[in-house]
Amino acid sequence: VQLVESGGGLVQPGGSLRLSCAASGSTFSRSTMNWYRQAPGKEREFIAQIRSAGASTKYADSVKGRFTISRDNAKNTVYLQMNSLKSEDTAVYYCNAFLLGLYSYWGQGTQVTVSS
């Protein structure tokens, strides 16, 4: 499984961005998909999760109510809509695919910078 993130960039506080993660292979629809982020000097942290059928989602408290995770299994793509961005959201954002409770795959990351 290969994961390629896109959609990062520079945005002002209060702005919005939508990240995308395109997955290769035929296992996407069976994978739990996650978004993580890592800010400079900090550990990588969990942000959001969506189960394979898309009915179940989970968020870190720091982004709840501002970020929305979704997926399109027909396009092998997972999204992260980020609204009301804050400076503390600045980080490299990573897509993760977790398959069968055993296999974990990571993308290369996309930089999000929130600054005026």
Please provide a brief summary of the model.
The chain has 116 residues and is an all-beta fold.
Cα separation of the termini: 37 Å
Enumerate the spans where pLDDT stays under 50 for 5 or more consecutive residues: none
Tally of alpha and pi helices:
0
Q: What composes the largest sheet?
A: 7 strands, mixed
What is the element string, with H for helices and E for strands?
Answer: EEEEEEEEEEE
The tally of strands reads 11
Radius of gyration: 13 Å
The chain-level mean pLDDT equals 95
In percent, how helical is the residue content? under 10%
Strand content: over 45%
Question: Layout of SSEs?
Answer:
Blueprint: E1 3-6, E2 9-11, E3 17-23, E4 31-38, E5 45-50, E6 57-59, E7 67-72, E8 77-82, E9 91-99, E10 103-106, E11 110-114
Describe this structure in words.
There is one protein chain. The mean pLDDT is 95. The protein is mainly beta and 116 residues long. The strands form two sheets. Strands 2, 4, 5, 6, 9, 10 and 11 form a seven-stranded mixed β-sheet that branches. The chain is globular, with a radius of gyration of 13 Å. The chain has strands at 3-6, 9-11, 17-23, 31-38, 45-50, 57-59, 67-72, 77-82, 91-99, 103-106, 110-114. It is 0% helix and 53% strand.
List keywords for this structure.
4-stranded antiparallel beta sheet; 0% helix; mainly beta; 116 residues; 7-stranded mixed beta sheet; globular
